[in-house]
Amino acid sequence: MRLADAGDRVMGKLVAAYGPEGALGQVRRGCLDPVFVEELAAVKGRPLDVRRLLEAWRARLPATDPIADLTEGERLGARLIVPGDLEWPTQLDDLGSERPLGLWLHGDADLRFSCLRSVAVVGSRAATPYGAHVAAEFGAGLSEAGWTVISGGAYGVDAAAHRGALAGVAQTIAVLACGTDIAYPAANQDLFAAIRSRGVVVSECPLGVRPTRLRFLVRNRVIAALSRGTVVVEAALRSGALNTAGHAVTLRRHLAAVPGPVTSENSVGCHRLIRRSEAVCVTSAREVIELVGAIGDDLAPEPRGPVLPRDALDDETRRVLEAVPARAGSGPATIAVAAGVDLLTALSSLGALAAAGFVERADQGWRLRRPK
């Protein structure tokens, strides 16, 4: 983890083929297995610059001190997990050669258990008030329903989703693009402390590693892989949230997007995902749960308008009611003609409508009852 950058596919394949000890031994000797090099070159379709790659890895060897890293992690309250550990989320195996070599965790929650029912909520750092409100509502709604909220701990949508989740009952997970001992952004330090007490802060970067633009993009694949689905709340055309959405599609995870004002630049990315049928349009946490949850068990109620008293009337009675004037009264025969029914039906309907409080008698016949 100290030698190779996060998401290094060559190191990932090397570890998968020879194990971490075998891979490290080859780096120390300064010579990779020729069979491995040939197979990798065949996959890539071009020769592999082994010398340059080994020089980059070996240049970091003198600065590595695993015992010091583990000791410092224990001092800070962080722990290291690797594939095969009980807490390791097996869904990360879907990343193949890009699977993290290990993860540093800082928090009270169990990562594997927390990710069993989890949703990633991502979006713009420069979120609009609308985006921040929606992210907080989604975070709170998912958490109240027992779903873990995963995000990146950044400004804007990420922070709002975490805070919304903290207002609920479930855990929340922040996946960082730096070491777990670094609060980035610094203004979210209190938020990270709250997440550690109610969830867990995750990073594949060793302690002390600072964030870079590339590490943010590489980090996004972990967010998508850990969760059962990703929701993009707000995203401009060049938003990093669309990078997370792309990983979700590649990993065959559920992808949803929240529509926004058509005049908002921050929602252009969401609208494009929906228009291209790459994402499902969602407007509430219940709809997200229906998308990522178990079939038949997590159905969202269909939105309905207000139920009015006249909704229970049959067609003939409703036509008679529509024919009754609001002010000056009309006789039953006039009402019957206007409603297109016979006189007996009109008289019967007027009696029922009067009993229900819809109409009343007037000097010249019947009229709509005036509300008190």
The assigned structural class equals alpha/beta
CATH C-level label of the largest domain: Alpha Beta
Rg to the nearest angstrom? Answer: 31 Å
- Read across the widest sheet, the strand sequence of neighbours is 1-2-6-5-4-3-7-8-9
Largest sheet: 9 strands, mixed
Oligomeric composition of the shown chains: single chain
Number of domains as seen in the coordinates = 3
Characterise the protein shown here.
- It is a single chain.
- By secondary structure, the protein is of the alpha/beta class.
- It folds into three domains: 1-64, no CATH class; 90-292, 3-Layer(aba) Sandwich (Rossmann fold); 309-368, Orthogonal Bundle (Arc Repressor Mutant, subunit A).
- Helix content is 44%, strand content 12%.
- The chain contains 15 helices and eleven strands.
Q: In terms of topology, how is this protein built?
A:
Layout: H1 9-29, H2 34-44, H3 50-58, H4 66-76, E1 79-81, E2 103-107, H5 111-114, E3 118-122, H6 129-144, E4 148-151, H7 157-166, E5 172-175, H8 189-198, E6 200-203, H9 213-226, E7 229-232, H10 240-250, E8 254-257, H11 268-275, E9 280-281, H12 285-292, H13 315-323, H14 332-339, H15 343-355, E10 359-362, E11 365-368
Pfam family, one: DNA_processg_A
Organism: Sphaerisporangium corydalis
Protein name: DNA-processing protein DprA
